[in-house]
Amino acid sequence: MAFTYDENGQLTADGFLASELATEFGTPLYVYSAKGFTDYFTAFQKAVAPVNGKVHFAVKANSNLAILSLLGKLGAGADIVSGGEMMRALSAGIAAKDIVFSGVGKTDDEIRLALAKGVGQINAESIAEIKRIEAIASEWAIKAPVAIRVNPDIDAKSHEKISTGQKSTKFGIPIDNGDAEAIYDYIHHSDHLIARGLAVHIGSQLTDLSPFEHAYRKLISLAESFRQKGYDVPILDLGGGLGVDYHGDSEPDFASYGALVSRIFDGLDYQLGFEPGRSIAADNGMLLSSVLYTKSAEDKDFVIIDAAMNDLIRPTLYDAHHRIEPVTQSNRPRRISDVVGPVCETGDYLAKGRDFAEMESGEVLAVFSAGAYGSVMASHYNTRAHPAEILIHDDKVHVIKPRKSIEQLLEDEYNPFS
Questions:
Q1: Which among 235, 288, 263, 260 has a CA at the least distance from the CA of 121?
Q2: Count of CB atoms situated within 10 Å of the CB of 344
Q3: Looking at residue 385, what is its pLDDT?
Q4: Helices 254-265 and 210-228, packing angle to 10 deg
Q5: 391 by DSSP, 3-state: which?
Q6: What are the distances in angstroms from CA 307 to CA 74, 103, 316, 354?
Q7: Which residue, among 137, 82, 74, 142, has the nearest Cα to 107 in the 3D structure?
Q8: Of 70, 295, 330, 412, whose CB is crowded by the most CB atoms within 10 A?
């Protein structure tokens, strides 16, 4: 893994001491490993190499331009869900033809941008959206490449806020009631749409592979029935969702996932699409934060740090677990502790009820597996600046997103009363 403790009990990031990075660049600080991203992405590519497929990194997991550019150079396309993410992917050097535009609510401007740039595939999720794409393509006398995202009504057994494969969610077009076939028939007969195939994504943070198999079997069954009716179904977009171990005991099991895909799709003539995000990014980023104070209550301590829910919202939003450790290991007495931030919300915590070594002001903690859905979900709540972001690459530290000053944040606003 990218972040390990050396023989002196000091946390290192690709050879750099985390304590020294915190001192030089300040905290809160996101630290990424280019080698880690490279190793994980290469491992995923190798795992799915036996099938005919293309790997599109899910930009929503980590949209830093340097990260996207690194993955693009390794052969990644991009899975995007907004016009802004499209511009990020293009700015990072990812070709438009290698971009898949997903999401349930694309605006007319975003559709026009996708068509103007030549995005390779638009995953549509309703007949209303498809008719908007068709109307805009008709205005320009072109054909838009459209796949439909279907909803297989499968419970991924993940957190309800990141589970997307059930019919009770807003995502996808139902399979069982005939809607998917009717909509695909509409695309097939349109003068301004090109049928690119079917897409599915049942949720995020799946560590059990069986929901994937159920979803993929349903997708194949639907695709085969469409082909029997004479429809062109060149692509099956399998989405993402492979989970990570936030306790830090193991790496993502890319090999087992690849074996599953190879077994299911062996002998079938489809181009497959893959959209990993969390499984590539999470373990290869960490958040460093300094202890401000400790405060003792009757039955526990509060370790108050300078990172907050606006820097990493996953614990309070998803009840998510992140391993948190001091960057310098010690044999101090341990206490049950909540790790909390300075934001004026009871929900401002990064961990609750942990068996934690006693901490002193100024010491640095590392929040592990923070490379996905960390910085991208940050806000300026309480007028707090985002953490800076650094990338370790080729034995050098690159500041890939500087920390803005409060003065710079204020300059972004216009006050007509001043």
A1: 235
A2: 9
A3: 95
A4: 30
A5: strand
A6: 32, 31, 13, 17
A7: 82
A8: 70
185 Cβ contact partners less than 8 Å away, ≥ 6 residues apart: 231
CA gap 224, 269 in Å, rounded: 10
| Cα 46–Cα 171–Cα 64 angle in degrees, nearest 5 | 50
User: Do 399 and 388 meet the contact criterion of CB atoms below 8 Å apart?
Assistant: yes
Packing angle, helices 179-189 and 210-228, rounded to 10: 50
Q: Residue type for 344, please?
A: C
The whole-angstrom separation of Cα 260 and Cα 205 is: 17
Distance of CA 66 to the CA centre of its chain: 15
Residues 6+ apart with CB under 8 A from 225: 181
Six token digits for residue 121? 């595939």
HSE at residue 358, side-chain half, CA atoms within 13 A, is 6
* 276 contact partners, CB below 8 Å, separation of at least 6: 44, 55, 57, 58, 240, 242
Distance of CA 45 to the CA centre of its chain: 17
CA distances in angstroms from 109 to 113, 136, 301, listed in the order given? 6, 10, 51
Q: In a structure prediction context, what are the per-residue pLDDT tens digits for the chain, which is 418 residues long?
A: 789 999 999 999 999 999 999 999 999 999 999 999 999 999 999 999 999 999 999 999 999 999 999 999 999 999 999 999 999 999 999 999 999 999 988 999 999 999 999 999 999 999 999 999 999 999 999 999 999 999 887 654 544 434 443 444 556 788 888 889 999 999 999 999 999 999 999 888 888 899 899 999 999 999 999 999 999 999 999 999 999 999 988 999 999 999 999 999 999 999 999 999 999 999 999 999 999 999 998 888 999 999 999 999 999 998 999 999 999 999 988 989 999 999 999 999 999 999 988 899 999 999 999 999 999 999 999 999 999 999 999 999 999 999 999 999 999 999 999 8
Do 327 and 10 form a contact (C-beta atoms < 8 A)? Answer: yes
Question: With contact defined as beta carbons under 8 Å apart, do 147 and 121 qualify?
Answer: yes
Interatomic CA distance for residues 403 and 409, integer angstroms: 10
Domains of the chain listed by start with CATH number: 3-32+283-411 (2.40.37.10), 34-278 (3.20.20.10)
> Active-site residues: which are they?
344
